[in-house]
From TrEMBL:
Top-level EC class as recorded in UniProt: transferase
Organism annotation: Mariniradius saccharolyticus AK6
Enzyme Commission number(s) of this protein: 2.1.1.198
Protein name: Ribosomal RNA small subunit methyltransferase I
HAMAP family assigned: 16SrRNA_methyltr_I (MF_01877)
């Protein structure tokens, strides 16, 4: 069958987004769901344990992360087939978005089980919308490869006309901005969002060479999303063409 219906009562696996900073961003439905399931799979049981304590939710927690997901997926699917209802959370944001989740969702669906991903916090949406760069079409790139495959990926993206969204760590930001200026050209517009929804949230927008210059003098800390304008038809930035 190609179409899917989300009859809540038959759901076996819930993907539950959790705050990316501000605890008030948890949804009412996320709380309700976490309270209703049999077990919560967490990327880091200590991190999620603290959130659940804050929400006064007392449920069994089981560890589920990139190092054990391959070998646990089959057993988890068996348990769901027997009637267990599971929620998956990651350390922050939406599970499956640059976080474990995909393998379990695919296996559950292949086994004919009902999966439901709740809408909720994720870092790339506010960064993209806040960037002021075109968001009618965009590509989510997540983390770039650190070494092997990085050059090829960047070359592939050099002709990308949609706005591009990247996750990046603070200690790699300078290197990435410099490489972007080289590959995309120094006048390409971009935006750096850090610590979204937190006390020190900051969104800085400018050309790639302006951002390189800015971050040379303003070392950055915290979590980062980098948004880069796509290539225009003439090879210039889309903004220059408008
Ligand atoms: N699942 C998460 C989501 O839905 O966005 C992403 C998890 S990924 C392992 C972590 C990365 O997300 C960070 O390195 C950063 O690039 C981005 N991120 C998460 N929280 C953020 C925040 N509050 N501000 C800016 N970027 C954030």
């Amino acid at each position: 069958m190609l179409f899917e219906m989300s009859e809540e009562k038959n759901v076996s696996l819930y993907l539950v987004p959790t705050p990316i900073g501000n605890l008030k961003d948890i949804t009412l439905r996320a709380i309700e769901t976490l309270k209703s399931v049999d077990v919560i799979l967490a990327e880091d049981t200590r991190t999620s344990g603290m959130l659940l304590k804050h929400l006064e939710i007392n449920k069994p927690l089981q560890s589920y992360h990139i190092f054990n997901e391959h070998k646990t997926v089959e057993k988890l699917v068996d348990r769901m087939k027997k009637g267990e209802v599971i929620a998956l959370v990651s350390d922050a944001g939406t599970p499956g978005i640059s976080d474990p989740g995909f393998l379990l969702v695919r296996a559950a669906k292949e086994a004919g089980l009902e999966v439901n991903c709740l809408p909720g916090p994720t870092a790339f949406v506010p960064a993209l919308v806040n960037s002021g760069l075109p968001n009618d079409r965009f590509t989510f790139e997540g983390f770039l490869p650190h070494k092997k495959g990085r050059k090829t990926r960047l070359e592939e993206l050099s002709t990308e006309s949609r706005t591009m969204v990247f996750y990046e760590s603070p200690h790699r930001l300078m290197k990435t901005l410099e490489q972007f200026a080289e590959v995309f050209g120094p006048s390409r517009m971009a935006s750096v969002s850090r610590e979204l929804s937190k006390m020190f949230e900051e969104n800085v927008r400018g050309t790639l060479d302006e951002l390189v210059e800015y971050y040379q003098h303003h070392p950055i800390k915290g979590e980062i999303v980098l948004v880069v304008e796509g290539r225009g038809k003439t090879g210039r930035s889309r903004e220059e063409e408008d």
